[in-house]
Design brief:
Helix content: over 70%
Shape: flat
Largest sheet: none
Number of helices: 4
Low-confidence stretches: 1-20
Strand content: under 5%
Mean pLDDT: 85
Number of domains: 1
Radius of gyration: 21 Å
Distance between the termini: 41 Å
């Protein structure tokens, strides 16, 4: 009996570790594919890429954190116990997060113009949209 419990425990730990590693691998694969896709679509020269990716990654990480915080606020609303005053406060916090996301985008666009030209910025916006579409298509194909 003790051996069975130990075996099950090791199996579950191994499975959890594998799932976490696979998730990290998937994220790394997606990150690498995004870098390759955007670099190609923008025709980034090596000296541009060297300056571009730190600015872009910082922006994406900060924006992701803000969006995640905003979504958490919205996800955890208990409408049954929420007073009108609490709703107003929560609404203002959510709007503030949205303003922070907008402000960060403005800062990013100011920063990125020092690295790439406006035509490349437009290509970047297009490449991000196209990458998301291709990623969703890939996920759909994997499911089927």
């Amino acid at each position: 009996m003790k051996k069975n419990i130990t075996f099950i425990a090791f199996f579950l730990i191994g499975f959890c570790f594998y799932a976490q590693q696979k998730n990290k691998t998937d994220k790394n694969d997606i990150r690498a594919a995004r870098i390759s896709f955007i670099t190609e679509k923008l025709s980034l020269r090596p000296n541009q890429a060297e300056k571009f990716w730190p600015v872009y990654n910082t922006y994406k990480n900060e924006t992701y954190a803000l969006i995640k915080a905003k979504n958490e606020l919205q996800k955890n609303i208990n409408f049954n116990s929420l007073s009108e005053q609490q709703a107003e406060q929560l609404f203002r916090v959510i709007i503030d997060k949205e303003q922070q996301i907008y402000d960060r985008a403005q800062e990013f666009h100011q920063d990125i113009t020092k690295v790439i030209d406006y035509k490349q910025i437009l290509k970047l916006r297009n490449a991000e949209t196209n990458f998301k579409k291709k990623l969703l298509e890939h996920i759909q194909k994997k499911k089927n």
